[in-house]
Design brief:
This protein is of the alpha+beta class and 310 residues long. It contains 10 helices and 12 strands. The chain has helices at 2-9, 34-42, 68-83, 108-120, 172-180, 187-201, 221-228, 231-235, 279-289, 296-307, and strands at 16-19, 25-28, 48-50, 57-65, 89-92, 97-107, 128-130, 143-145, 246-247, 259-262, 267-270, 275-277. It binds zinc ion. Zinc ion (ZN) is lined by residues 249, 251-252, 254, 258-259, 270, 272, 274.
């Protein structure tokens, strides 16, 4: 069990970080031993976990909330991910906490892109994303305190909880067992989320619509949906837009025409804080409003039925 717990969190064996009594970390250039995990769980010493292995691959992503407000957003994210069939693990701390996601070894650059896209969907300015590096250049890179140990400075030990705040298991031992084989994020989900991001990064210079462009070979479902219709043409089926492509936001009680579509850059936005993005983001919010399953997967499927030829 300890071996698998170590495999979940500890990506390299050639060196490891140790927390000092003032809360900082030092790197020990020594071979990692399983006994250290035992000592960590007993509170005799406190280990850190590097985010990347020597090949710059990651097995986890950690979002670090420093404030109660950020923590509330992470709880929301956890519930939304759950709707998509993705399990996030919550480790509260004094004022905020960590949200952990686990996967099979994945390049750090991709993990960061995935994490940043998730963060972009929420009001999470200032939150830290680990791994902090896309790849290692010098040194072992960023680290997070290995869970279930004792913080050297505060003496505190924190357990994992559900979004409602209950422990995920009654004892440290049972929590270790759960984290020895955590639910992994499906690679297809990472692919879909990051494809969404690269679409946004490669917005066309001039409008491609209404003539749909042919799908490049290997296009993901979300790419095909976004190529099927412009955000403007899709959204105006549901929102009354004026000649400047603005209108009343369907997602809040709007008195001031806070909603608009940027036709050149092909995205929608609400200035009152309802967010914005692609037609997929729009339809997720729309389905949420209608009380339908607003998960990423269910929304893609619904859009495919509406927009793609059978
Ligand atoms: Zn709004």
């Amino acid at each position: 069990m300890l071996r698998r717990f170590a495999r979940t969190f500890i990506p390299r064996q050639d060196c490891y970080p140790l927390q000092t009594e003032d809360g900082r970390y030092i790197t020990l250039q020594r071979h990692f031993e399983l006994d250290y995990i035992q000592a960590h769980l007993k509170g005799m010493l406190t280990l850190g976990a590097y985010a990347l292995d020597t090949r710059s691959q990651a097995r986890w992503l950690c979002l670090d909330a420093d404030t109660p407000e950020q923590w509330t957003e992470l709880l929301k994210m956890t519930r939304d991910l759950e709707q998509d069939g993705v399990t996030a693990y919550l480790e509260p701390s004094r004022r905020g906490g960590h949200l952990w996601l686990f996967f099979s070894p994945t390049p750090g650059a991709r993990v960061r892109q995935f994490g940043q896209t998730l963060l972009g969907r929420y009001d999470l300015a200032g939150i830290e994303l680990f791994p902090k590096q896309a790849e290692l250049k010098t040194g072992p890179g960023s680290l997070v305190r290995l869970p279930l140990g004792r913080h050297r400075l505060t003496g505190q030990r924190y357990h994992f909880v559900t979004p409602d705040g209950d422990p995920i298991a009654p004892t440290v031992r049972a929590q270790v067992r759960l984290l020895s084989s955590p639910q992994l994020v499906p690679p297809a989900y990472i692919r879909d989320v990051t494809a969404e991001e690269s679409d946004r990064a490669e917005l066309p210079d001039k409008p491609l619509f209404p003539d749909a462009r042919p799908h490049p070979p290997g296009a993901t479902l979300s790419e095909r949906l976004k190529n099927a219709i412009s955000v403007y043409d899709f959204v105006r089926r549901y929102v009354d837009l004026d000649e400047r492509a603005t209108g009343f936001c369907p997602f809040h009680d709007d008195q001031r025409r806070s909603f608009g579509v940027n036709r050149e850059q092909n995205f929608w936005h609400c200035w009152a804080g309802c967010g914005g993005g692609s037609l997929i983001d729009f339809w997720m919010k729309w389905r949420e409003r209608e009380g339908l399953d607003a998960s990423f997967g269910a929304t893609l499927k619904a859009l495919a039925d509406m927009l793609l030829p059978r």
